[in-house]
Amino acid sequence: MSHHRSSNGDIFILDGKYSNPRIAYCDGNGKIYDWLNLDFAATKIRWFEDKFLVSARIRYGSQTKKVLHYFNKDGILLNDFCYRRPDWREFTKNVGGTYGSLAISNSKIFYSFSYPYEIRMFTLTGDSVFSFTREPDFYEGTVSYSPNPAVNPMKYTHWGGHCLGIVTINNNFLIAFIANHHKRKVYIDAWKINGKYLGFIDVTNLFQEISLIRSIAVSDTHLFVGCHSPYGHIKKLKIEFYDY
């Protein structure tokens, strides 16, 4: 489930389940006053410039070939863009390849696939600019097969890492939370908006388990990371960039 608040105080909540996905329109007190039904399972929502930007859950690729969709408040589809990867079936057999992450700066839209490492940049009108890509050694995973292939012939890919979420900072930087499954670690990757990779820091000591991270938001140079265990809480981090 994802949500976003508009400038007038309204709250928009995405119920992106596979069956009957929809967006709830709520007033500032949380009272639902309308719904927008979607024809695809969705994962993220952003409200800006009087329209919704909704990202599709790409595991259900038969529902839509494009990941990002613009709707106005009346529910009219204005534009859709960001095609799925051609190898999307291989990378959506596990939760890590299902969700993806969405971030918006003042002039650009960013969408990150959970796996493999690819962050796409678009203009606000949906035109492709370029992609941030990297191949960390630990991303290489392993493959296993069903112990009873006659009953279940599936092949399973166990990935070595995936992207937990992305945010932009001051319209100059983009950071990605990256999970290393082999070593059970969490890293913050830092990029300049022009595509220059700045490096990473290990923040594993701040989180008990990588699967606990559920959401990431930013305000100025502070990061807010939502975790669901051992109880629902938010960690506030300060990040600074030097000589860039």
Please provide a brief summary of the model:
By secondary structure, the protein is an all-beta fold. It has no helices and 21 strands.
Describe the structure.
- The chain is mostly beta strands and 244 residues long.
- It has strands at 2-5, 11-15, 22-26, 32-37, 42-48, 51-56, 66-72, 77-83, 101-104, 108-113, 118-123, 128-133, 142-145, 155-158, 161-169, 173-180, 185-192, 197-202, 213-219, 222-227, 233-238.
- The strands form 6 sheets. It has a 4-stranded antiparallel β-sheet, with no helix packed on it.
- The chain is globular.
- 28% of the residues are buried.
Write the layout of secondary structure elements.
Blueprint: E1 2-5, E2 11-15, E3 22-26, E4 32-37, E5 42-48, E6 51-56, E7 66-72, E8 77-83, E9 101-104, E10 108-113, E11 118-123, E12 128-133, E13 142-145, E14 155-158, E15 161-169, E16 173-180, E17 185-192, E18 197-202, E19 213-219, E20 222-227, E21 233-238
Antiparallel strand pairs: 1-2, 2-3, 3-4, 5-6, 6-7, 7-8, 9-10, 10-11, 11-12, 13-14, 15-16, 16-17, 17-18, 19-20, 20-21
Main beta sheet, described? 4 strands, antiparallel
Give the structural class. mainly beta
Q: What is the third-level CATH name, the topology of the largest domain?
A: Methylamine Dehydrogenase, Chain H
- Terminal Cα separation, in Å? 36 Å
- The gross shape turns out to be globular
- What is the annotated CATH architecture of the largest domain? 7 Propeller
Q: Roughly how many Å is the radius of gyration?
A: 18 Å
Regions with pLDDT < 50 over 5+ consecutive residues? Answer: none
Order of helices and strands: EEEEEEEEEEEEEEEEEEEEE
Query: What is the helical fraction, as a range of percent?
Result: under 10%
Mean pLDDT, to the nearest integer, reads 82
Whole-number tally of structural domains = 2
CATH homolog superfamily of the largest domain: YVTN repeat-like/Quinoprotein amine dehydrogenase
